[in-house]
Amino acid sequence: MATDHNEKEELVEETTTQNELGIESASELSVEQKLEEDLANEKDKYLRLFAEFENYKRRTTKERIELFKTANQEVLLALLPVMDDFDRGLAEIRKSDDELLLKGVELIYDKLKSTLNSKGLEEVEVKAGDIFNADFAEAITQIPAPSPNFKGKIVDVLEKGYKLGDKIIRFPKVVIGQ
Questions:
Q1: Among residues 79, 89, 84, 87, which one has the least CA distance to residue 116?
Q2: What is the number of other CB atoms lying within 10 angstroms of the CB of residue 168?
Q3: Would you tell me which of 35, 87, 92, 171 could form a disulfide with 138, CB atoms 3.0–4.6 Å apart?
Q4: Distance of CA 13 to the CA centre of its chain
């Protein structure tokens, strides 16, 4: 029986040792798993932060480009009445017989116009006979159409419109036929 008792003690010791080793490997595994989870979480946070930063860079670059495109908008808007006055003045000077005066004013007008065009200002192209589109022109009034061809179309352009890049900064003012 002594051998049975010794065998039982050895068996209990082996089981205890195996259990202790199992517990240690299970705790090591859980620590390893925990570290892997932490690493995965940190990688996810890093990727999200990196993506957010890339979006921020793209957005600020786009905003900066838009700002450069429209930075002169206030100055250009202030000069539009001068362009209108030039147009009216040229129309009156053309009625006179003074060719030198007309040529001089046209030179100044062309220089001003080319300078404004170099800054991105463009005229919105609308003319009598075009179909009226509220996205590109502002209707001041409606008059009876001089002919059936002018119903719903532009009859007259009262004031030119201008755009800066793709943005219309002043809509052309037009009269439409009804």
A1: 79
A2: 17
A3: 171
A4: 75
The DSSP bridge partners found for residue 131 are 153
Q: Say whether pLDDT at 11 is over 90.
A: no
Alpha helix ranges (H) inside 71-133: 73-95, 99-118
Instruction: State whether the Cα torsion 74-77-81-86 is positive or negative.
Output: positive
pTM beyond 0.85: the answer is no
Cα–Cα separations (whole angstroms), residue 12 to 7, 8, 18, 24 = 9, 6, 10, 18
For the cut 90, the answer to whether the pLDDT of residue 147 exceeds it is no
Residue closest to 142 by CA, chosen among 118, 168, 173, 121: 173
> Region 165-171: what's the mean pLDDT?
89
Give the pLDDT score at 71: 77
- What is the distance in angstroms between the CA of the first residue and the CA of the last residue of the chain? 121
Closest CA to 137 of 97, 165, 110, 170: 170
How far, rounded to the nearest angstrom, does the alpha carbon of residue 28 sit from its chain's CA centroid? 53
